[in-house]
Amino acid sequence: MTGGAERPELGAVPETALWTLWHRAVEARRPDTVLPDPKAVELVERIDFPFAERFGQDALVSQLQALRAGCFDREVADFLIRCPRGTVVGLGDGLETQAWRVDNGRADWLSVDLPETAALRERLLPPDERHRILAGSATDPSWMDEVDPANGVLISAAGLLMYLRPTEVRALIAACAERFPGGSLVLDTVPRWFSKRAVEGKLKDRHYQAPPMPFGMDADERDKLATAHPAVTDLREVYPEGGREPLRTLLPLARRVRRRPSVIAMRFAATRGAGSGAG
């Protein structure tokens, strides 16, 4: 819908926050949704933006985006069981509404995003004492000064790393491992062919062209992430669960495909490592 009061004007990468929001809302409106997300629906109705004209309406894309969000939700929910007063950091958080889906009422949430996106989030999802917003780049380690690790830390980088350079990805993982021993990081990646097409400007349809994605990684390369820092441990893939038929049947088969998107979870050793493996 386009009847809201908020009229965002975002650059190419920040605009992806609207793309993901739109697809979560499209899926959430379904009576058989795989991701109940009333907050996403509310935000779309409040924002004056031609969502359908800009991003199209593809039920499969919306369902896949919702299932991807569900992977992150499960990891955060598990973290909050282990660390009920911990801190969840959303890097490149955009208009993610995860806190309204899995919050336990006790955790702290910190959203870190570029200034224009952070300002939009602050207007639409005003912060409070447990939900803070910080304007800045995820690659600038100063955001780490805003995180109290005493009760546990989980860092979520959903839809972020593909827009960074490979050296920036390694440096970010290394910095998190060094700064938050015992913490966790959940991220997602696009396969190399997808990254290449985005960089070449070939990921487009009549509605929308995706911005360049310099970082791509095939699913069977995930162990390479462990070389970013000696403290990276317990590295595993988080697979989407559920879905409507025929996608429900196809998803387990898709695990055999090497060149596919993936969601990766890792933990950091509880003792500080010696030096950084970034580079």
Description:
By secondary structure, the protein is of the alpha/beta class. It has one domain: Vaccinia Virus protein VP39 (Rossmann fold, 3-Layer(aba) Sandwich), CATH 3.40.50.150. Helix content is 34%, strand content 15%. It has 9 helices and 7 strands, in the order H-H-H-H-E-H-E-H-E-E-H-E-H-E-H-E. The protein starts with 15 loop residues before the first helix and ends in an 11-residue tail after the last strand.
Q: State the end-to-end distance.
A: 44 Å
The total number of structural domains is 1
Strand order of the largest sheet: 3-2-1-4-5-7-6
Alpha plus pi helix count: 9
Over the alpha carbons, how many angstroms does the gyration radius reach?
18 Å
- SSE arrangement, N to C: HHHHEHEHEEHEHEHE
**In terms of per-residue confidence, which ranges show pLDDT below 50 for 5 or more consecutive residues?**
273-279
Strand content: 5-15%
CATH topology: Rossmann fold
Give the second-level CATH assignment, the architecture. 3-Layer(aba) Sandwich
Largest sheet: 7 strands, mixed
Q: How would you name the CATH homologous superfamily?
A: Vaccinia Virus protein VP39
- What is the residue-mean pLDDT, rounded to a whole number? 93
Could you give a quick summary of the protein structure above?
The chain contains 9 helices and 7 strands, in the order ααααβαβαββαβαβαβ. The protein has helices at 16-28, 38-46, 51-55, 59-82, 98-102, 115-124, 166-179, 192-199, 247-254; strands at 87-91, 108-113, 131-135, 153-157, 184-189, 232-238, 262-268. It has a 7-stranded mixed β-sheet with strand order 3-2-1-4-5-7-6, with helices on both faces.
